[in-house]
Structure formats: C-alpha cells, structure tokens
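re the bet — no i am not wrong, look at it urself. input seq straight from the record:
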Amino acid sequence: MPTFIKCKHRLIEKKIVSLQHIESMAQTDNNISDKRIRLTLRFSEGSMSFSVGDPQADDKIVFETYPVNTGISVAANLREAFKSSELLLSGYKRAMVLVDTPVMLVPMDEFHEQDVETLYKHTYKWQRNEDIVSNVLPELNVVAVFSINKDLKLVIDDHFEDIRLQPLMQSVWAHLFRRSFTGNRVKLFAYFHNKRMEVFRFQQNRFHFSNAYEANSTKNNVYYLLYIWKQLGMNIENDELYLVGDAPNKDELTTELQRFLHRVYTINPETDFHNATLSKRKDIPYDLKALYLT
C-alpha cells in the first residue's frame, strides 16, 4: 500500500527538492535500452512472470508466465521455475525485478537513510524475513522504500550478477506522471491490478496523494474513489478521473462513478501507447507495457 511517511492519507504540501547526498542511489543507466536487455522478473500475489525485450525493436518482448504453486513460498516457486522456464534457462546475467509490495514514498528533502528501516517497520506489518530497499525516483522527487522477501532475493542473487529492484508501480507512476501534464485539468488516477486499486495524484511536479485499497467490489471502489475525490477537494465538473488496468466490472464501475463525476475515463493501452504492437497484448499487464514503452 503506497503511502507517505507521516500518514497514509496525508497530503504532502511541502516543496520537494532533490538532495545531492542521495543522487548516488539513482539508477542512472536504467534507460530504455537497458530495460530491453535485462530479464524482467515480475512478482505479485499469486502470479509470476518473466520477460525480455528485443534490443532491435521498440515494442517487442518475449513474455512467459509461470504457474504458481500457492502451497509453497514464492522463493520455492522461483527455484522450481529455474528448472523449466525457457527464459530463466537462457543464461541472462542481468535482471530487473518488479515486486508488488507495500511502498512508502518519502519526499527527497525528508529522506534520511538511517531512519528508513524504523519508519518502514512502523508503517507496515514488516516481517523479519524481509529486506528493506530504497529506490530513488528523481523525476518524481521521491524515494520509494519497499521490501522484498529475503529468500526470494537470495534465489535471485544466486542466478544473476547485475540486479535492479523496483516496486511494480514505479513504471505506472512514471508514465502517468508524464500524462498528467496533458491539458490543464487536475487528474486523479486509479490503477487496478491483482485485485488491488492504487490511487494517486500529482501536483506541482510531485506526488500529492498515493494510497492502495483492496478492489473487492464495485461498491467499495466507488466509495474509496469518491471519498478521495472529496478529501482532495477536486471539482466534480472540471477535474478528471482515469481508470487504468484490469478494473473488475469496469463498465459497472464507470457507470456508477459517472453518476457523481462528470469526467470519468478509461485509459485504452493501445491509444495510450500509440498503437504499439505490445500495447495490444491482452496477456501482458499495463505496468509491464509502461516499463517497456515509456
């Protein structure tokens, strides 16, 4: 559940500035070409997939899902996957690891590395078998603090020499942050994936709000979104709500929201990514499309 460190629903109004002492943490060579030649491992609740881009083609990837055995740990599943996955057995030594995990967003000017572990443990139900990782997002002027299972990380470390870790939402945030500059209306985004709804808004080149909810019913989703809308003081007639990803009962959700809000839109990945071949793949989640196409 993404949140800022002071309070899960607090609006961050302080000016966010970059700090020189944490710039070294940024992944400076995490560019498009680098993404394409790394093997991407995506982990979320109940699912696991592997993909790799084509360095010679902008929107082509090899994508492979792995049937997760819910009776064993994610680390044990990955060990088993290394016995049969064509991509994992292809000898890649560089990896991009996407983990669907609670994220604490810390404004850069409030980030102190020595406090991160304590703050994260107090914010979430931290487990002793988890490592806490910090990842600088320079464009968004925040540091994303998240966790990864130690056993899972050990399996990854055993098979790859060069590893990048990032929260699953990072590519979505980056892509929609740029989209937020189109037009002059205030925008609220809701990304649906793996039975969760991640809601966020940007203002003045920074996060203004970010939180996550269980997307277990249309009624609850409508309630959460309208509550956030009211909390942020957004305008019913002029401001915009964008629904992204695999929203359950999307038509019903849109219809219900349109009873209260005048501008509710569903983002079409094909249009969003300029009809790239990859954008048309129904089997590939939006966050992976954003990773490769942004």
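see?? Residues 218-231 form the longest helix (14 residues). told u. also The first strand starts at residue 3 and ends at 4. so pay up
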